[in-house]
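Ops channel
N.P.: pipeline sanity check, posting one input/output pair.
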């Protein structure tokens, strides 16, 4: 075996022949859009080209499949050629992010010790940041509970380099790559939190995670336990937690930045959701460990903000509970009064997320926020409406929806707006309370958003992101392995960058 046999070059190739590519007009072959595999000036830049072109020819019409092939030669490093179809609705940065993710996953599958992603010359900092993100995101795997010999072999060394002669790295590019790695690693931490089973990640354990991260990363955290929540009047959080042996927590994490009014990120933190008395069907109930994906996103946004030392003051507010049935559990038909003083009829105990968020959003309002953004795996109706490709965004402030849309396109964590028209408000009217926690099957995502809007008001810039469809992926594709997505970390930071 040659000395360099465990080193891989990841070479992104264009796979969109017939749609405006600049390949050889005589053959239709195009295998060098994004880079070459030259490792030094005297090595052939094309030893792999014929094999790659033949492979691409065989993929014509194959759509968006995550395709790669290993091209090897005894006197060369392994080359993983990755097909990256350019699309008009996808920024070039996202194409590079996806290609890097596919390539690093291939390198892991083949047991490589080192992976180098080859970047073509002339790219901007956003493309370099995106490729750095893909190299971190693409091969994440939850292997904590596997035996040592079952954990697989992730390439311990991974890097980016520009094709052609080696030159110095511009400082702006170095900063872009650093930013990409920090954001992607924060997203991977969020993925790990979401993947943890309910017996490992209780509300108290989530609070301890926040404390550890604060100590290691340098942000502030405060944890409110059950006694203080009762004293302060967090009736909705206490009602949802009543059926569980695990007491609730309110986690408040802050990156101080340069001061000023904070942007507040609210994350739903139901560490396990049985549905309570309105019990969910047993099939796939185990997946309900990911009902705290919003909390993971909010907390890991703070982690990344501290590491990047962004100027914006940023606060995460996480209501953490477990939703369980018992003799003490809240029941359908109960009326709960939360921190806002509003009464809420509990029509369905499986609509618990909006209850705990009502307290968290009321608390967030008291922080004099510049804006509030909440993340929640809130409704199955969102998956029905939008599938698994984007989150629903609901707001009465169109500029926030526009900025989130731009941020989603840039990061690959896309959003799509749904209305908060008052026409739907009657669906959550209650005959015995100020508001009811469900509005029936019709427009379920919208009525959930309208319920949350009751606790924010029109004067605070706020948007609700229903991430039920994007919190978890059943299959690998691009930079997303199968499993939790960690959705929202990079989206929120790009949104913060856009809003200035």
């Amino acid at each position: 075996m040659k000395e360099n046999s465990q080193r891989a070059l990841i070479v992104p190739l264009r796979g969109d022949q017939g749609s405006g590519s600049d390949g050889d007009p005589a053959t239709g072959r195009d295998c060098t859009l994004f880079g070459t595999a030259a490792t030094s000036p005297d090595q052939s830049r094309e030893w792999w080209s014929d094999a790659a072109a033949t492979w691409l020819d065989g993929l014509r019409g194959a759509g968006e499949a995550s395709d790669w092939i290993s091209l090897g030669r005894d006197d060369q490093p392994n080359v993983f050629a990755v097909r990256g179809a350019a699309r008009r609705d996808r920024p070039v940065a996202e194409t590079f992010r996806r290609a890097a993710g596919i390539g690093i996953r291939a390198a892991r599958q083949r047991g490589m010790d080192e992976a180098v992603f080859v970047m073509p010359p002339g790219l901007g900092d956003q493309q370099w940041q995106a490729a750095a993100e893909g190299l971190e995101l693409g091969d994440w795997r939850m292997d904590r509970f596997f035996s040592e010999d079952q954990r697989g072999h992730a390439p311990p060394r991974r890097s980016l380099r520009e094709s052609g002669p080696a030159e110095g790295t511009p400082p702006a590019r170095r900063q872009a790559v650093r930013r990409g790695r920090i954001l992607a690693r924060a997203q991977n931490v969020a993925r790990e939190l979401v993947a943890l089973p309910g017996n490992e990640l209780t509300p108290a354990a989530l609070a301890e995670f926040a404390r550890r991260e604060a100590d290691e990363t340098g942000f502030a955290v405060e944890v409110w336990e059950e006694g203080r929540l009762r004293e302060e009047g967090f009736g909705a959080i206490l009602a949802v937690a009543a059926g569980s042996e695990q007491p609730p927590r309110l986690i408040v994490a802050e990156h101080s930045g340069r001061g000023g009014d904070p942007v507040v990120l609210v994350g739903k933190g139901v560490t396990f959701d049985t549905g309570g008395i309105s019990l969910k069907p047993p099939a796939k109930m185990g997946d309900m460990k990911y009902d705290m994906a919003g909390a993971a996103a909010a907390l890991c946004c703070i982690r990344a903000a501290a590491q990047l030392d962004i100027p914006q003051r940023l606060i995460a507010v996480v209501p953490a509970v477990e939703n369980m049935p018992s003799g003490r559990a809240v029941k359908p038909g109960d009326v709960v009064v939360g921190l806002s003083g509003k009464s809420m009829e509990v029509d369905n105990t499986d609509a618990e997320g909006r209850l705990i968020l009502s307290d968290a959003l009321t608390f967030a309002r008291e922080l004099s926020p510049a804006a509030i953004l909440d993340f929640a795996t809130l409704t199955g109706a969102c998956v029905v409406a939008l599938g698994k490709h984007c989150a629903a965004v609901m707001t009465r402030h169109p500029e926030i929806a526009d900025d989130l849309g731009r941020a989603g396109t840039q990061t690959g964590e896309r959003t799509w707006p749904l209305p908060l028209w008052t026409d739907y408000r009657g669906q959550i009217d209650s005959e015995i309370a100020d508001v009811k926690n469900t509005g029936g099957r019709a427009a379920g995502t919208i009525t959930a958003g309208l319920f949350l809007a009751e606790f924010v008001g029109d004067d605070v810039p706020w948007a609700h992101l229903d991430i039920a469809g994007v919190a978890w992926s059943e299959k690998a594709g691009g930079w997303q392995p199968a499993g939790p997505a960690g959705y929202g970390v990079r989206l929120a930071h790009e949104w913060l960058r856009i809003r200035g």
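N.P.: looks fine end to end. The chain has a mean pLDDT of 86.
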